[in-house]
Amino acid sequence: MAQEDIFKKVVAHCKEYGYVFQSSEIYDGLGAVYDYGQNGVELKNNIKKYWWDSMVKLHENVVGLDSAIFMHPTIWKASGHVDAFSDPLIDNKDSKKRYRADVLIEEQLAKIEEKINKEVAKAKKRFGDSFNEQQFRETNPRVLANKEKWDALHSRFAKALNDSDLNELKQIIVDQAIVCPVSGSRNWTEVRQFNLMFATEMGATAEGASKIYLRPETAQGIFVNYLNVQKTGRMKIPFGIAQIGKAFRNEIVARQFIFRMREFEQMEMQFFVRPGTELDWFEKWKDTRMKWHKALGFGDENYRFHEHEKLAHYANAAVDVEYKFPFGFKEVEGIHSRTDFDLSQHEEYSGKKIRYFDPELNESYVPFVVETSIGVDRMFLQIISAAYCEEQLEKDKRVVLKLPVALAPIKLAVLPLVKKDGLPEKAREIINELKFDFNCQYDEKDSIGKRYRRQDAIGTPFCVTVDHQSAEDNTVTIRYRDTMEQERVSIEDLGKIIGEQVNFKKLFEEL
Ligand code: GAP
């Protein structure tokens, strides 16, 4: 099945099984804003717990924070967001659709890469086991010609971005004959910069009101609290502050479901270090974060690092963790060495000293910062697309979400075989015992087969079936989602069997 079709199915599945709904759906929706349903909110909470505990519980020198969304407007002037947090936009005059010029060019690059990969896949099929991919990539004339095209376009694009040369971005679009996906025409406007921050007003009267922004990243709340946390927590450098919270961006192109939203949630950690050591810490955090992703077991080959074409105004090194989504390798997380840019700017704009006295060096300095920043919603999409699976069975087909068990919204479903003979009561007894430790669901409707399929579709790792034998010997069958194997176990042992598997500790031990 084509990857695009799989993605459409994932989106439909999210709606059908209570994971994600379009916001304001009964009013025809609101662009790029989404709500999380009964299963979605559980998965989202579990993702946040996986991140939070791995940062704050597992690192003695990382502590948490929950700062407000509204902040003093000067913060955004100091951080550079008022002047520089913008995307280059371009309109197609025929379709009246608006695009990000850089995204149009990135998609063109991805098309060339796709051509190379298709060539390699074809050859792999033809030559079978004797295929030497590296040699093929280095010698095949068609691959080499496309590689040359890719390199030339990539370096021209990177230069245009670095020089903030909007005319050159437009020229690349013209030279590459990029067409509007809706109208199919090349009738483009000039490229303009568009600030992504949402603004609102705070204050009771129109005259007294001041313009404030909805934060476009949670990071600034950490920077402006650096001294509070360092002093009250008696933190010694190196140390980190972690925060999870909402962020808002007026994205020009909001596509691909929850990949790019206007209201989303970030999990960010700013790690404060001694100047000169930041690039070592950058490497350490790259490594730590990649392990965190890979521990979920979706296949190491589906992750890669991507170096930035253009460094943000605050960074001296930056890399993305990319995952192979059904629509290609895309960013899930950014890791940035932000230098002392933010703290120095806040010193200057606030007039307050933001320093650390280093007792080992016997001097004060503005700390340097390494940041890890990941979107909760994007991580959600990564997990759900990786977990979605259609399996052909002997007699029928099943759709199963192979979610990491620790992240699954419902850990076990308890199913009485029939709705009589005391089996529902027995099932309720089991839930009453286990509900303090695990999210349980009771289901007695339809045949047992249909109930298993329903639980597979929402990713429940364990189904416990109560039958007539259960009343006699206090045993039940437990069915495992991924293998569909069943075994008879004592009701007494259920807590232990399930507890061992759903525990976050299993994931953390891989880090
Ligand atoms: N503080 C640094 C920062 O915000 P970023 O690369 O702009 O860096 C970090 O964002 C992460 O936030 C991204 O890797 C992505 O996971 C998530 N993110 C950014 N914009 C988003 C959007 N419009 N919708 C959903 N997630 C987004």
Description:
By secondary structure, the chain is an alpha+beta fold. It folds into three domains: 38-71 and 196-392, BirA Bifunctional Protein, domain 2, CATH 3.30.930; 86-193, Herpes Virus-1 (2-Layer Sandwich), CATH 3.30.40; 399-508, Anticodon-binding domain (Rossmann fold, 3-Layer(aba) Sandwich). The protein is built from 18 helices and 23 strands. A seven-stranded mixed β-sheet has the order 3-9-10-16-13-12-11. α14 links the parallel β19 (412-416) and β20. It is globular. The two termini are 34 Å apart. The model has no long low-confidence stretch (mean pLDDT 95). The chain binds glycyl-adenosine-5'-phosphate (GAP). Glycyl-adenosine-5'-phosphate binds at residues 217, 219, 249, 251, 260-261, 264, 266, 268, 331-334, 371, 373-375, 377-378.
Bound molecules: glycyl-adenosine-5'-phosphate
Largest sheet: 7 strands, mixed
How many separate helices? 18
CATH top-level class of the largest domain: Alpha Beta
Structural class per helix/strand content? alpha+beta
CATH homolog superfamily of the largest domain: Bira Bifunctional Protein, Domain 2
Q: Could you list the spans in which at least 5 consecutive residues all have pLDDT below 50? A: none
* Percentage beta strand: 15-25%
Counting DSSP E segments of at least 2 residues, the number of strands comes to 23
Helix content: 25-40%
